[in-house]
Queue: 2 jobs
Job 1
Amino acid sequence: MKEAEITVIGAGPAGLSAAIEAAKYGANVEIIDENALPGGQLFKQIHKFFGSKEHYAGTRGYDIGRKLLSEAENLKVVIKLNTVAFGVFDKNKIGLFDQKDILISKPKKIIIATGASENPLAFPGWTLPGVMGAGAVQTMINIHRVLPGKKVLMVGAGNVGLIVSYQLLQAGADVVAIVEAMPKIGGYFVHAAKVLRMGVPILTSHTIIEAKGEKEVESATIAALDQNWNLIKGSEKELDVDLICIAVGLKPEADLCRMLNCEFTYVPFLGGRIPLHNEDMETTIPGVYVAGDVSGVEEASVAIEEGRIAGISAAESLGYISEEESEKERMKCKNRLKAFRIGPFGSPRQEGKNKVFEEYKRRTKNVK
Amino acid sequence: MRIVDHPILGKIKERKKVFIEVDGKKIEAYEGEPIAAALLAAGIRVFRFTAKEKEPRGVFCAIGRCTDCIMTVDGIPNVRTCVTPVRDGMKIKTQVGLGKWEQK
Ligand SMILES: Cc1cc2nc3c(=O)[nH]c(=O)nc-3n(C[C@H](O)[C@H](O)[C@H](O)COP(=O)(O)OP(=O)(O)OC[C@H]3O[C@@H](n4cnc5c(N)ncnc54)[C@H](O)[C@@H]3O)c2cc1C
Ligand code: FES
């Protein structure tokens, strides 16, 4: 088999879109994913997405995953599943392990689209069996069709906490309460309305203070917080639950960027430490691109557009597409991204991204 | 507990049934599913005990990142059960500490 010119790490919406775009212009592309299923987060998403038509609004997440996958397959993209990229060396040697052998891939360009990982939350009892990440619970109920508990406390009322709560109800569990430390619900109103309609209380300015149980979770203690985030004495309440879900945010899964010595910056609103990149999605290491949640935690629609941009940029740098044409194609994606990053949820993300782009310029100025 | 009927996903797909042994007890599993899913379905949530404090641990991330779910599988310790598929006749043991390699 011919050696791939571009290796994409991660087969989520960002990675698949990047591969599709680059392959469309004629590049020889492979995608690596450590999962048995391609699609990344999409396969866990059983709700209908919103956004615009270009972003498959109204389509359930797993259907978007299937569409992208068949498009990639039609373009002869090589998809290697059950294969983990464990490291990158000398700028372009990627170490892969396919459960049997260690392989080295030596592409000309690398697109890192590894997504994000869940933040943990430490409190007494947080290591007990029955305390799980919300994404972990989602994997169990929607992919493996197994319910890890019956009476649930959800910690966090952002979109992930709200959506997974609703999916737990759909799976037949009882969601006893959702606690949120902030004074207001973080996620979209439609998602909150869905769980409220089902009678699930969302307690803002509340947090979990302890998980109790002999060998596994048998109950949870919650309490109210005042304006200064101090516990209000006497407000403690014990809830009869056997599953505690943690949904307190995601952070970019950027280990491979770290190994490559990419430069980083800190943007809390995008999930913490973000690998610096320009508007064409290239990192401070030439020939290495990022796209999707790894370049700042946002949404699938954003991941798709960023993936497209990274794919076009990589194809351009290999000479498959002229600068003029690629600029034109990228502009379409960039305009859609701008339209997406407005409003109370979007504009802080645009500001965060601008900071990343500016920092990239500042730090690469002296080098180039 | 298995989610047999689901308002969006429909009825659970027919899959080949296999049997695995957990601490000497036979339990039912479905071909291709991760060990952790089969155990949770059977109501087993304690997978191991830590080396020093002997504290119980189970599934936390379900995607192979945290290593909380490791057990001894067919004599091999520290196997991440959330990303390891079941096989008929597999022998699984609750692990204590770092576990021990056992002769097969
Ligand atoms: C509960 C929930 C609800 C959501 N709802 C919406 C919504 O309504 N609308 C919307 O637009 N977005 C939604 N999102 C967000 C969306 O799913 C993500 O933003 C999107 O999936 C990010 O895409 P990605 O390609 O960057 O990463 P991912 O989808 O996370 O894919 C990354 C892939 O990389 C693989 N990988 C990582 N590291 C390695 C490695 N070292 N080697 C090999 N493979 C690796 C992973 O296995 C994974 O498959 C939701 C997310 C969640 C959790
Ligand atoms: S639960 Fe985290 S590695 Fe298995």
Job 2
Amino acid sequence: MNENEALLDALIEGRLPDDAGRFGPFGGRYVPETLMAAVTRLDEGVRTLLRSAELQARLEAELRDWVGRPTPITPAPALGARWGAEVWLKREDLAHTGAHKINNAIGQALLAQALGARRIVAETGAGQHGVASAAACARVGLPCTVYMGEVDVARQAPNVDRMRRLGAEVVPVTSGDRTLRAAIDEAIRDWVSDPAGTYYLIGSAIGPHPYPYLVRELQAVIGREARAQMIERAALPEAVFACVGGGSNAIGLFHAFLGDRDVRLVGVEAGGRGSGLGDHSATLSAGRPGVLHGNYSMLLYDDDGLIHETHSVSAGLDYPGVGPEHALLKLVGRVDYVTASDDEALAALDECCEAEGILPALESAHALAGARRWAQAHPGARLLVGLSGRGDKDMPILAQYPVRKERSDAAA
Amino acid sequence: MRPHERVKAAIEQSEGPAVVGFLTAGHPHPDRFLRDLAAIAEAADAVEIGVPFSDPMADGVTVQRSSRVAIEHGVSLRWIFAELERRDFELAAPVLLMSYLNPLLAFGYERLAARAAETGVCGFIVPDLPFEESGPLKAALDAAGLALVQLVTPATPRERLRRLAAESSGFLYAVTRTGTTGAGLSVPAELAEYLAAVKAASPLPVCAGFGVRERAHVELIGRHVDGVIVGSALVEVLESGADPAAFLRGLKGRSATV
Ligand SMILES: Cc1ncc(COP(=O)(O)O)c(C=O)c1O
């Protein structure tokens, strides 16, 4: 057995991340010494509290009664007819607050409370994680501060109002690239200032160990449900698609399928407006190994090691890093990572609206675009597409792209 | 003397508390870098040169700003080594580079150690590299006799403190408070107790930094450990166009009132 096979087996059998927080070569904990004590305490909390029967019971109840789980899988026959495939959608857009982010937010909020945190800080790109955090904090009764890049504050305005109404303080970040990456920098700075009393509720499967593991555990419910639902309603899909920003919805959807070696798993990154550095945020497709925000993973950076600015029409995918588990899945070849451009995503969004009466998030539209392309190369295939969220939040962006029937026709 | 021993000796040999001055390379302007560096090396016991980074997550607003300005001027690790190479004067104090890890990774550790040795850099301080992850970089630097300074903070447990102190080289960096660079000092009584514990655990000289701005701070800290590190305050002095050497001498000089 070669080394990659052994790593994949270890991952499937639950032996990764290892004690050092590594997924093979990726992961780890690259944080200032000030945070080491907090990260170690969190690690203990994840190992003991998160797995405790009490917290698991509370989480299960909140997921059922408050989040609205299980979310359905929806057959998409009209999309299927257009694509020449059998298409199923896993509907995280139907979860409370409108995206998969809520699974993670409520889980971490309960953990934070069990750890005795006095306040929560979070960051957000698209605003979905900010809204989910604000809602989860309101639910458990903890004050919440959300950092959000100035650029994203402007392009995801409806979510800013939602967060404020849910009682969170939203702090616009004017430093750095003024998007998600700068918001994470700022949330970490806040956390560094009070690592004992503040809990950092990270929004994706990124950050120092144990966050990538913790977030995957909380999001894996998506794939567990979807796998069982597919078997019940049809059969295992031939391929599963999810968009990849930081990678939380994708890892959540993929994880339960890792052992089904016949099921192709495809992560769709934001191809943006072109292949030049700065024109996309296709970290796994175009990046190199490096260190950002506490872990060693694939990253977009220049020859001097400076993290590169990224672009995507979808704020939630506009990030130069990715979770370390995805970097491993790419290394061992278990998941294919492809890109969908801004235009392809916009066309897929229109098509899904027209055909199925579902307005997906722009992030999720990338997964649809990837699935559509795959379907054309594999006629008659059974596909499962992760619909990570709903598109209401994207209305200000979509206003710049008037409904054009030609767009979806042109992409056909 | 090997480079890491030069750092240690420079701090030990200071009369009164040692002062380590920090500047971000190329801030406020690249043209001034070597001149500022010479002046700071003249007045301080050691110099920390900040390698600008796009995501300086352990830094407060002042250092963040200086880093951004330097990047806008095209400053990089390669540029810093080239500048150090073309200097035509002796540095009066040993120099260390303060960098986040990714620029060092991108440069390559073997090449990094070689370039540092060639250009007279004596060691490295890497704020986002805790001891657990430092093996590969440490091996490359050790081979060239270069220091990798470990940091400890008030949140570092005692057992870990002893381990980090034993693993440091050059000196041990005692962060005075939790938080980013640039904010104020913590409560004097707690600070004294913490610094005494660090000093007791360390076989190397100890320098304390984060929040040191004035002579009173140097005197307070100097009673417990071997030196201070002055970052944001010195960056502000450089930004204002004032004389960095005069500022540093003011910090070092004996004051009439304690
Ligand atoms: C609806 C939606 N989908 C996907 C993402 C991408 O994040 P991740 O890759 O971590 O799931 C986001 C992020 O904000 C989002 O809001």
